[in-house]
From TrEMBL:
Residues 334-524 form the Histidine kinase domain. Residues 195-237 form the PAS domain. Its EC number is 2.7.13.3. The keyword Transmembrane applies. This is histidine kinase. It catalyses: ATP + protein L-histidine = ADP + protein N-phospho-L-histidine. PANTHER family: NITRATE/NITRITE SENSOR PROTEIN NARX-RELATED, NITRATE_NITRITE SENSOR PROTEIN NARQ. Pfam families: HATPase_c, HisKA_3, PAS_8. SMART domains: HATPase_c. The chain crosses the membrane at residues 21-42, 48-66, 73-90, 119-138, 158-178. Keywords: ATP-binding, Kinase, Membrane, Nucleotide-binding, Phosphoprotein, Transferase, Transmembrane, Transmembrane helix, Two-component regulatory system. InterPro entries: HATPase_C_sf, HATPase_dom, His_kinase_dom, PAS, PAS-like_dom_sf, Sensor_HK_TwoCompSys, Sig_transdc_His_kin_sub3_dim/P. The keyword Transmembrane helix applies.
Length: 524
């Protein structure tokens, strides 16, 4: 993952010292070059424009030094750049090589590379260098004459003094900037080192698989949990292509998955944002088939990839679907059986009576056959209504869960010796899906108690609970071994999946000879 040691990375890290460097530059230039500007204003016969510009420069330097804390750094930077460019142009124009233009160019380069876009800075300095060489060419070829001869400039104390002062200015500002830069750089490196050390320690100790992916598709890091999950060493998966080749050995399957994933990751690096990517049915080194969701956190040219295992979740989801399908199949068989055993015989008999009716000519026989046919058809309709009512009880739709349970109990009470005790609250909400699921669960529990439990008493309580619903079912029968029943049949699984699929919770408490206690709860 690494730390950015490039010059650009260093420069971008020093916003806190840029203000100090610019203020020091103003102070040094004002103290050392201010007297030269004042000398030029007082002693030299300068053109009006040069006099005005020199006055503005001198006044501006003084103002910035006095009011430095109140002037934004951007304004100070622009004005200092103007001062240096003006000094460069003016010195080259008036005195050529002896005016110290080369020192101004050094200062301009240092200032612009620190405070401006590097291409903009390079452009400024190229223009100034071209300007310098043009004037030197004109001067050396005699096409441009200065007011003072070069010999006089060399002998002038003011000229060599100015040259010496400019040297001192450049050395002072450059030395101060370098010192501040390396102090800040040292602090930044230490800060980033400590930060990455803590960050790596956190990743190393995370309980979920984590890997670091660079923009060039290199897997630069993974934690112990990643190794435990996949089983691959760093040498086996140096790049993401190697990881795909390992976990999807079938090329036909791998090509499409890898292409789609690589496209999403590339967009993620560009946007610094990526939705989770799901990988299904891949192979670990040990041959296990697993599924996982990968969440990406982008940090510049590095993506931290956290793997959330979906294997167990998908297994449970598949089990729920299979159980529900089996429950539906069982229900369909039950309905078919009821139609076959109940409605089928009545319709078969009705068909016989209808056939006989067409073959009899005696009115008395026809009347008797018609009466019997009518009875059979009424019986068939009644059986059909009972079957439909068992699928979706009309009383449940019209009057709710409590009335439906009471109606079912009243229906079976005459054919059993079990005593039913029902305690029902007026429910504070109506949810047809929850009511149907609870109704089906209670019917299944009652049928199981009658078939296998041999109880003498069944208690059913349906209560409000903070806006939710709590249903308890108790019988005093022989009970059962819950683990054995779960392994050998789908009855309890059907009840459990039906309740949990729609957000409820169900618990069983039973044992051999201990009766059965079941609690169903829905929270709102």
């Amino acid at each position: 993952m690494g730390i950015d040691y490039t010059f650009k990375g260093v420069v971008n890290s020093f916003n806190t010292v840029k203000g100090d460097i610019i203020d020091f530059s103003y102070l040094t230039i004002t103290l050392l070059l201010g007297p030269l500007y004042a000398y030029n204003l007082y002693f030299e016969e300068s053109p009006v424009l040069a006099f005005v510009l020199n006055s503005i420069v001198l006044l501006g330097l003084v103002v910035v030094v006095v009011f430095k804390s109140k002037i934004p750094i951007r304004v100070k930077t622009l004005f200092l750049l103007f001062v240096l460019i003006f000094g460069n142009l003016y010195s080259i124009y008036r005195y050529g090589f002896f005016g110290g233009g080369q020192y101004f160019m050094i200062l301009i380069f240092g200032l612009s590379i620190f405070y401006y876009n590097r291409w903009w800075a390079i452009g400024i300095n190229i223009v100034l260098v071209v300007y310098f060489f043009i004037y030197m060419h004109l001067y050396t070829t005699g096409q441009l004459q200065y007011d003072v001869s070069p010999q006089l400039l060399v002998r002038s104390k003011m000229v060599w003094l100015a040259d010496f002062i400019l040297t001192i200015v450049v050395m002072a500002i450059g030395g101060y900037a370098i010192r501040k830069t390396f102090i800040a750089y040292q602090y930044k490196v230490k800060e980033q080192h400590d930060s990455f050390k803590k960050f790596n320690y956190t990743l190393d100790n995370l309980p979920i698989p984590v890997a670091a992916l660079t923009v060039d598709k290199r897997i630069s890091y993974f934690n112990e949990a990643f190794y435990q999950y996949f089983g691959f060493d760093a040498e086996e998966i140096p790049y993401i292509e190697d990881w795909f080749r390992q976990v999807y050995p079938d090329p036909a399957k791998r090509i499409e998955i890898e292409a789609n994933s690589q496209r999403q990751i590339k967009n993620g690096f560009r946007e610094q944002l990526q939705l989770p990517i799901e990988y299904n049915d891949f192979l670990t080194k040990s041959g296990e088939v697993k599924s996982a969701e990968v969440n990406h956190t982008f940090l510049g040219d590095v993506a931290i990839c956290a793997f959330i295992d979906l294997t167990e979740r998908k297994r449970k989801r598949r089990l729920i679907v299979e159980t529900m399908m089996k429950a539906e199949e069982k229900e369909n068989k039950r309905i078919a059986q009821e139609l076959h055993d109940g409605v089928g015989p009545l319709l078969s008999a009705a068909k016989i009576y209808a056939h006989s009716l067409t073959n009899h000519t005696v009115d008395a026989d026809k009347e008797m056959l018609s009466e019997k046919l009518n009875e059979l058809l009424n019986g068939a309709l009644k059986e059909l209504r009972n079957t439909i009512n068992n699928v979706t009880p009309q009383i449940l739709q019209k009057y709710g869960l409590a009335r439906a349970v009471e109606s079912f109990v009243n229906h079976i009470q005459p054919i059993t010796s079990i005593q039913f005790l029902i305690d029902v609250d007026e429910l504070s909400f109506r949810d047809s899906l929850i009511e149907l699921a609870v109704y089906r669960a209670l019917i299944e529990l009652i049928n199981n108690s009658i078939k296998y439990g041999s109880p003498t008493e069944i208690k059913i309580a349906i209560k409000n609970d903070d806006g939710g619903l709590v249903v308890s079912y108790i019988d005093n029968g022989v009970g059962f071994d819950i683990d054995q029943v779960k392994q050998n049949g789908f009855g309890l699984s059907n009840i459990t999946n039906r309740i949990e699929t729609i957000g409820g919770k169900i618990s069983f408490n039973t044992g051999a000879g201990a009766g059965v206690y079941v609690e169903i709860a829905f929270k709102h």
